[in-house]
Amino acid sequence: MKLDIVTIFPRMVEIVRHEGIVARALESGLVDLATHDLRDFTADRHRVVDDVPYGGGPGMVLKPEPLFRAVETIRRTRGEPSAIVLMSPQGQRFDHAAARRLARLPHVVVLCGRYEGVDERVREHLATEELSIGDYVLTGGELPALVVLDAVIRLRPGAVGDAQSIEHDSFVRGLLDHPHYTRPPRLDGLGVPEVLQSGNHGAIRRWRTREALRRTIERRPELLASVQLDDEERELLRELIEEQEEGATTHVEHH
Ligand code: 9D3
After folding, report:
1. What is the Å distance from ligand 1's center to 138 Cα?
2. pLDDT in the model for residue 166
3. What is 163-218 written as a DSSP string?
4. What integer pLDDT is reported at residue 171 of this predicted model?
5. Nearest residue CA, atom 11 of ligand 1?
6. What is the pLDDT of residue 196?
7. Longest dimension (CA), the chain
């Protein structure tokens, strides 16, 4: 997979080459990452990438020509991209489904916005889609581009050592993850649930499903609306709701 990132802060993106699963995927050639300094595509002596907004108002707007030229150079030197993603607060929310869709493409270009915004002609005539990573205000599209890069790269076959951990991704299933424990069995009096040390794999599986359901109800109940539960899961869910109702009438919530 080819990934091209266009930014005025290429060093912010280059840090991913040094550490972790992403660095290994790049080193092993699973992903070919190129970063492009937007200022290299300016035509003036001062390498200016922004300008005042037509109509007035505060802040600066990212000029269109350097972005168009950057993509033209990517087309010539790296080939025709399958998607040109503009990172912007106005974009569709990036989620696991979007990560999986992008991970299947052979060549993705990501454009990082800065300042108050990007000239609308980039959005309409250059980008093929627009993505946001969530409803909070950042200073630019670089960290969002890294979020997309991280989520996409780990889905490429061979990037994550244990393929099972991809299938178990909680958002693939639509439920939050169950709790995890490792040694020691007692930590200053804090124990590990007996069932996990029992060796009873059926009981362990049921416990994990119950705890995943419990967390989902407590923290992200809206996720349950779009998850397909099997008979056992529906039964566990019914038990949990009963448990919750008993709790509500006998004692005050402690968190
Ligand atoms: C005044 C209106 N703001 C739009 C909501 C202006 C503005 C804020 C922040 C314009 C650009 C930015 C910089 N952010 C991004 O480029 C960005 C972003 C984000 O801020 N949050 C979540 N996802 C993204 S993707 C790109």
Report:
1. 5
2. 82
3. HHHHHT-HHHHTSPPPP---S-S-BTTB---GGGGS--HHHHHHHHHHHHHHHHHH
4. 77
5. 116
6. 98
7. 73
Catalytic residues, by residue number, are 89, 116, 154, 169
What's the pLDDT at 247? Answer: 86
Q: Give the pLDDT confidence of 170-229 residue by residue, as tens digits.
A: 777 899 999 999 999 999 999 999 999 999 999 999 999 999 999 999 999 999 999 999
- The contacts of residue 182 (CB under 8 Å, 6+ apart) are none
Within 10 angstroms of residue 176's Cβ, the number of other Cβ atoms is 18
The residues that bridge with 83 in the sheet, in sequence order, are 108
pLDDT of res. 253: 57
91, containing H or E segment:
strand 83-93
Residue type, 90: Q
Q: Which residue, by CA, sits nearest to atom 6 of ligand 1?
A: 116
Residue 147 is given by DSSP the state H
- Here the tokens at position 224 are 């349950």
Question: How far is ligand 1, taken at its centre, from the CA of residue 53, in Å?
Answer: 16
pLDDT at 250: 75
**Is 131 in contact with 98 (CB distance < 8 Å)?**
yes
Distance 23 CA to ligand 1 centre (A): 27
- Which residues of the chain, if any, have pLDDT below 70? 251-255
Pocket of ligand 1 (CB under 6 A): 87-89, 113, 116-117, 132-134, 136-141, 144
**14: number of Cβ within 10 Å:** 13
Could you tell me how far CA 44 lies from the centroid of its own chain? Answer: 36
pTM for the whole structure: 0.94
Backbone torsions φ then ψ of 113, nearest 5 degrees = -80, 165
